[in-house]
Amino acid sequence: MLTQVQKATHISKTATPRRFVFLLMDQFTMLSFACAIEPLRLANTVMGYQVYSWALAGEGGKEAICSNGASFHLDMGLDEVDREDMVMVCGGMDIQRSTTRAVVGWLRRESRRGVTIGGMCTGAYALAKAGLLDGKKATIHWENQDGFLEEFDDVRLTKSVFVVDGNRMTTAGGTSSIDLMLKIIATDLGEDTANNVADLLIYSTIRTDQDTQRLSIPTRIGVRHPKLSQVIQMMEGAIEEPMSPADLAEEVGMSTRQLERLFRRYLNRSPKRYYMELRLQKARNLLMQTDMSVINVALACGFASPSHFSKCYRAHYNTTPYRERGTQAGNGLGARLSI
């Protein structure tokens, strides 16, 4: 049973419901969208009257299909919205292709009118493409960060689960939409109401914009060894100019041989091999998410020559960077598994 309903602090019972306009991009991710719209529905339930309303928008105004194949009937096309509306761009797979000129033009127009605009999952890409994130803090799903950083160097990209910077909001995807919506609900209706909504969602740990998307390195690798975690963090931060095993070992106060034993014991590979896998993973992200040349991808990932890069890439992925890029050209850049 619901706890006692708290009186709205900003949206009264007699006020017009605050409307969210969800722009559903082609191949948007259902999880991120559902985690945004359900807290709004539950806030209405908790308050006992309609605080929030919503409309589904999309290019063409007819239907939007998400990445799992489900289709949604749209309420509107790229029509003008009210200035008090909040536009949320729901991104997903193949975001470069779905960010059309019409979408970019619509976002710019609504931005000039002072509308608050957010991007969920890869929706931040559409906002950045429209120039709405220049000079602002933002976030995007961790899998898409490498490509985003290469294309939009005017955006202050973070690894937070969500970011609010003025009238721009971005989330990392997945369940992070819940955290952003709970923050909005808390601002509008008070912390008690937001906590009630979280309880109804069985959401026991509400994250803030200070929380990061990914698991900590010890949790991610399944090993809690401080020096190993420190070395991996240094590796992840020095992809373009890789550090030598000797330099890594010196930074954490051990010999190169001790470092080798540490990696063999806990990760069953050498430091050099682990580092190479990190660099190749970033290279694959850039090949699949950007239109950077193979040569520039090689340089961005610490390879001195395209031939060495191609040799290492083929040994690890059983295909060449050029073939990988060709496959992605057929599917559209950025065809990744987005949450």
DSSP strand content: 5-15%
Total of domains: 2
- CATH-derived topology of the largest domain: Rossmann fold
- Strand ordering within the main sheet: 2-1-5-6-10-9
CATH architecture of the largest domain: 3-Layer(aba) Sandwich
Question: Can you count the helices?
Answer: 15
CATH class annotation of the largest domain: Alpha Beta
Quaternary status of these chains? Answer: single chain
Low-confidence stretches: 1-8, 329-335
Rounded mean pLDDT is: 90
The name of the CATH superfamily of the largest domain reads Class I glutamine amidotransferase (GATase) domain
Q: Which bin fits the share of residues in helices?
A: 40-55%
Number of DSSP strand runs: 10
Shape: globular
What summary fits the major beta sheet? Answer: 6 strands, mixed
Instruction: Provide the succession of SSEs.
Output: EHEEEEHHEHEHEEEHHHHHHHHHH
Structural class: alpha/beta
Terminus-to-terminus distance: 32 Å
Rg, please?
22 Å
Describe the structure.
By secondary structure, this protein is α/β, with parallel strands linked by helices. It folds into 2 domains: 18-200, Rossmann fold, CATH 3.40.50.880; 217-331, Arc Repressor Mutant, subunit A (Orthogonal Bundle). The chain has 15 helices and 10 strands. The protein has helices at residues 30-47, 95-98, 101-112, 123-129, 145-151, 176-189, 191-200, 217-221, 226-237, 245-251, 256-267, 271-289, 294-300, 306-317, 321-331; strands at residues 18-24, 52-57, 63-65, 71-73, 86-90, 116-120, 137-138, 156-157, 162-165, 168-171. The chain has a 6-stranded mixed sheet, sandwiched between helices. Helix 1 (30-47) runs parallel beside helix 6 (176-189), helix 5 (145-151) packs across helix 12 and helix 10 packs across helix 11 (256-267).
